[in-house]
Amino acid sequence: MKTPLQDVHVMIVEDNPMVRDLMCHGMEPHCTVISASDGADALLKSVDNPPDLIVSDFHMPGLDGRQLLEKLRSRDNTRNIPFVFVASRGDIEEKLRPAVGGVVEDFIPKPFFVADLVRQLKKIVDRLRLEKMPKSASRPGVIQGRLEEMGVTELMQSLEMGQKSCRLTLRHGGEEAQLYFVAGQCKHAQMGAVEGDTIVYQAIGWLDGEFEIDFAATSDRETTTLSTTGLLMEAMRLMDEAANQSVES
Fold it and tell me: Yes or no: is domain 9-131 CATH 3.40.50.2300?
């Protein structure tokens, strides 16, 4: 079930009905999905109602994925739509990346597992959702929400991908953690008198509560020792380790 924050509209463009259905079904829990059967269908739908993200196959009859991208880039209301190509590794490296790499959000090589595709696209969707959220902020430069709607991991990944500088405040069960980001990297974390990596590891385990992002708040302190991705990976490792010890005991 989609939550109120899941208002990112993603268009899936694929001429193979079975593959298109699999892609759409995989993304439906994470966004509003629009399907298009080919490039021409996608162009008509995009011009009429531009989506937030387009995920398109490269080889399609008639208007192929690259031609679709070129036509969208030529129109004012669709030129800035993030675009993801799905293609063979050969096509990506020889035909697409050299020609359109600078204007394409990402490439997904074929063949792919749907779970891997969804995982890759969800990172983009989370970032786009975060970018849309300030439009409905309660205060200028501040966005708020619930961790049930967007978890700590998704928030941190989105801030990293968007290279945001801000203060992320997390509240859970009477506790409050503050994480400061500079260009997407978590540089400082504190909770009361405690600071550093351990605060991030603890907060990542919070599954409910509230969050607030203040893009005007900054700190010049550096108490964390890893990149944002490194902190997330280490937190996952520690949680797996704790789960295994619990099973063994």
Answer: yes
Environment class of 88 (CB within 10 Å of its CB; exposed 0-12, middle 13-18, buried 19+):
middle
* Residue 204 φ then ψ, to 5°: -60, -25
Distance in angstroms (rounded) separating the CA atoms of residues 70 and 103:
10
Alpha-carbon span 65 to 58, nearest angstrom:
4
Report, as an integer, the average pLDDT of 120-125.
Answer: 92
Chain center to CA of 227: 17
Q: Please give the model's pTM, rounded to 2 decimal places.
A: 0.69
The mean pLDDT of 144-163, rounded to a whole number, is 88
pLDDT at 226 over 90: yes
Where exactly does CATH 3.40.50.2300 map onto the chain?
9-131
Which tokens hold the place of 212? 């607030």
